[in-house]
């Protein structure tokens, strides 16, 4: 028996035509898919992590949004071709099965749990914070021990203790945390601290996802329209309070600069900004519920990405124009900048919108994860129960419940610091394989019903890209090579990326590959090397656990391994 199985599922068995599985209700249009993409992308990122990215990168963070949008755009084009040619639930998991084989499909499916499940834990905790702020705004307040997880409480107390030890004066918020921790009930010698709002919103969202896509899309569409109106208000009002001097602060060299901390400062926000974009690929998990997936999925993805990019760029310019970028390292940057200019009423509207925005992200992710597990259950890599559809609602009921438990329980005690690095690296890895997977698809004649990526000859593009990259990074590259024995983890990754870039470019140019998937994969790889070493360590640990599960269960019960029909290429 082979240790790992690399057999591919043929496109004919993945096109959803007649695969023998129960059929899901087809209710989604281009409009629904576009709003679902916006729902997934415009969430915690625009209301929280954008502040940290702006603090590090200054006004130049708007350029980082463009860079990441281009990177996601390459990936979106590749997702769109896969979605058109393999219109089946499962997203990157199914696409990897078709292009690389079973073991890579499992790896991708396991990586996507980082994007959807763990990402949703973070979003739920963020939602709880916004919700508690709303309650305070109307004179209500949950006890500290009912609105904060145990490990989050320990982190808060430890952080405050360090600040006090360094001579800082206790603020009212610090006092509130210390008193709340002290007054929390004791349970077996430990303080009882649970984040009840985060848990309850996961339960509610899981119920909505359980009862059907029709109900889910109505709820999601309503929330998206409302939060886009609020964002339009923020942008419209905010432009009247912009001080253009804030766009050219004094930089490291003592002169005004749009990049006060250089491109290094801008790139420090990679995880935070990319986390803001995570989720647009969730649209592809709904392929079996689209009215016309081969036409509508590509359009929905690209429309959503374009809308979100424009909004993110405008928001970043408003934030860094209204106040100094140095003031933006706060949990609620949008509300903060309006409070700073005396417009507290807008800050309250933003808090309401933040609750709505994060709710819509939760819903889309809670829809995406069960459909990936459903596909894995159909293929035998997970127990068959994961593939079960509800007889009435036609949703993956068992997978939805398991997703709710997997997300809901940790929100009770997890800290909010479980944030972007691990989720971002898992998603970028999935994007890399999707981009490269397009190159493995068999050539087809152009059809009106199928989307395909425009062809750009690598021979005319990649050599120029390599030359520009080497010119811009020559000093860093030379220094890394000369001091390789003393370099840190990031510089080693940089050297590996440079070697990969040159190798890919030579090979792709000789074979005349389409440059778009290659550029997508290389862009994602570069963003990955900018993620801190701890994120990589967590990612490799997660992947090792996944391989162990595959070797102990998936490879043994794989449906297609036991199936003797010609289902593989």
Give me the number of helical elements: 23
Instruction: Indicate the percent of residues in helices.
Output: 55-70%
Number of strands: 2
What is the CATH topology assignment of the largest domain?
A: Amino acid/polyamine transporter I
Output the radius of gyration. Answer: 24 Å
What does the largest sheet look like?
Answer: 2 strands, antiparallel
End-to-end Cα distance, whole Å, is 19 Å
CATH class of the largest domain equals Mainly Alpha
Give the topology string: H per helix, E per strand. HHHHHHHHEEHHHHHHHHHHHHHHH
Task: Supply the CATH superfamily name of the largest domain.
Answer: Amino acid/polyamine transporter I
Based on the coordinates given, report the CATH architecture of the largest domain: Up-down Bundle
**Chain-averaged pLDDT:** 81
Contiguous low-pLDDT stretches (5 residues minimum) are: 564-569
Structural class: mainly alpha
Tell me what the structure shows.
The protein is mostly helical and 569 residues long. It has 2 domains: 11-137 and 203-250 and 261-455, Amino acid/polyamine transporter I (Up-down Bundle), CATH 1.20.1740.10; 150-193, no CATH class. 66% of the residues lie in helices and 1% in strands. It has 23 helices and 2 strands. It has helices at residues 30-41, 44-57, 61-85, 92-99, 102-137, 144-147, 150-165, 172-183, 196-211, 213-238, 262-267, 270-277, 293-322, 333-340, 344-378, 397-411, 420-439, 462-472, 474-482, 489-511, 515-529, 533-557, 559-562; strands spanning 186-187, 190-191. A two-stranded antiparallel sheet has the order 1-2. Strand 1 (186-187) and strand 2 (190-191) form a beta hairpin. Helix 10 runs antiparallel to helix 15 (344-378). The two termini are 19 Å apart.
